[in-house]
Amino acid sequence: MVEPVARIRPYKTEDEKQVRFVIAKAAMEGLASANTKTILNPVSLSLWVLLASFLIQYMGWWPKPGDGILAYISLMLPFGSAVVPIILFSDWNNRWYFEDISQRVLRGPDMVNFQEYYSKYPASGIWILEFAGRFIGLIAIDASLSERNNSEHINSETKTAVVRHVYIDEPYRTTGIQKDLIDYAVQSAFTSDPSVAQVKASSSSLREYVQKGLDEAGFKYEGVKETAGLFRWKVNARVLTRDDWKKRQNHAS
């Protein structure tokens, strides 16, 4: 029996539909995490208990001595009802940020033609991760910003490539395979264009598997780029310099 294997390959034009779907999905996937963190926040939990208690008191549903266990089980209904407005409030206040991010991503310059965009510069690339022949993830690195900066004589001493997209299917995230995918793309960027001095990326606790992969690949914290959602979760800027990458390569060997 042949064991299923994982492989990383370059993007093909026939991947376009799947890639567009995954990029859109990745832009919104932090919303579920933001809603969960909002609902499980101590403030939200306290408010939930207060709303449920008020509803039970108002309706006179508190069990009386001798009512039996079924009377207590019936309290699940008001507690379930009380959490609904908290869920709606959470989604209402978190969604706007992720919809804005989604629009920014979907209007990105690479979304017109992936093949053409990522083949313009040696350090750019978009790669597909497969397991047993099945699409399970992708990563895209964009070095075009460096070329534009150089042509405009802005920051021309430092050529930068940017991790534009990262995604791994949920069942495979616990394996840590995202680190292998990031390592592969970073190595390609640095080796394809010796003038690239650094690779930058963004991360947040709302996409923990991406943040963990970047950490394990050697990306260092640079600062906060923006905040996300109701509780203003930090979206951090990360960077991996060529020097740090070389040190990691030498240590690994």
Automatic annotation (TrEMBL):
<dbReference type="Pfam" id="PF00583">
    <property type="entry name" value="Acetyltransf_1"/>
</dbReference>
<keyword id="KW-0472">Membrane</keyword>
<feature type="transmembrane region" description="Helical">
    <location>
        <begin position="69"/>
        <end position="89"/>
    </location>
</feature>
<dbReference type="InterPro" id="IPR016181">
    <property type="entry name" value="Acyl_CoA_acyltransferase"/>
</dbReference>
<keyword id="KW-0808">Transferase</keyword>
<protein>
    <recommendedName>
        <fullName>N-acetyltransferase domain-containing protein</fullName>
    </recommendedName>
</protein>
<feature type="domain" description="N-acetyltransferase">
    <location>
        <begin position="85"/>
        <end position="238"/>
    </location>
</feature>
<dbReference type="InterPro" id="IPR000182">
    <property type="entry name" value="GNAT_dom"/>
</dbReference>
<keyword id="KW-0812">Transmembrane</keyword>
<keyword id="KW-1133">Transmembrane helix</keyword>
<feature type="transmembrane region" description="Helical">
    <location>
        <begin position="45"/>
        <end position="63"/>
    </location>
</feature>
<dbReference type="InterPro" id="IPR050769">
    <property type="entry name" value="NAT_camello-type"/>
</dbReference>
